[in-house]
Amino acid sequence: MEKSRSFCPPPYFVSPVAVRGYPNYMTATPGRLATTQHEDDTISFFVDCNNAGVLFIHAAADGVTISDIIKPVYVPSIVHSFFSLNGLHNYKGITHSLLGIQITDLADGIFIGCSINHVVADGASFWHFLNSWSGISKGSIYLSKPPVFQRWLPDGNAEMGTENISSLQALLSHIWRSAIHNRSFDPDQETNYRFVVGARQRFQEIPDNYFGNAILGTFVTMKAKELVEQGIGNSAWRMNRIIAATTGESFKKVFECWPASPSFVTLSNRDALITSSSPRFNMYGNDFGWGKPIAIRSGSSNKFDGMLTLYCGAEEGSIDIEACFFPETLEAMANDQEFMHIVTV
Structurally, how many domains does the chain consist of? Predict the structure, then answer.
């Protein structure tokens, strides 16, 4: 997982010593992954909290401005170099840092690039870390919401169903419909939209500051003809129903059954669109002492045709989407007047 923030230049530079405050509460990220061999010839991973350390890099890109990064429609290739753990799969955490932080001085600002192994944390935990770190860098001695590491199998079954289609569900359906239409799919070909559902909202026992992975992947499937011809209302409604049906009991069933019969999802699939991150995360709340972020960008990890990365926009109430499609699909979508009527690039 790779995310970054761009800031205006600070009146001073915060020393990496500020990073030390957070691991007092959290011992997982300075550790490494380790394995356990089982009698049935399977292997499981766990985090060895051995304090091996995190990767911290201070770099400079004197000829690059903030505008060079945030103005282009396409994310500039140089952004890749602002992240420190490029190309590493999760299992590489056995020998590599689980957390990498790179501070890059730009000509007129600061770019903070952070990479964290997804075995350790989900998106909510990632942003909790960033916001806590920024508080420590400004002198906070105690965290208002220290991370919670207790692991348990919840018994709750909170219902999150709603009859109302959210604006986000409608927007994602609009993008899904246009992408499939402009990929020229066979009308009877099945396509699906994959996304993750959070457990924190579905169990009273799991606090917002729970640190770890508390998510479940799910998807909605439609034939290309249905998706294109029936409009976004139908696809948004189906997405809404899938999310509403993902209850606490659904999570509990997966938690109980998955270890006995593990399965893995292939992310890159031309038949599918996949959502990463969430506009509900507090991405602009971290202030290291020189103001709030100007923009958010992600690194090159898990980038493939059909990946959508969601952010809350800098303007309150807005949503930014970083879309990864083949060039011909992007060009066709840009020429799709129905699609472009409600989006800006």
Answer: 2
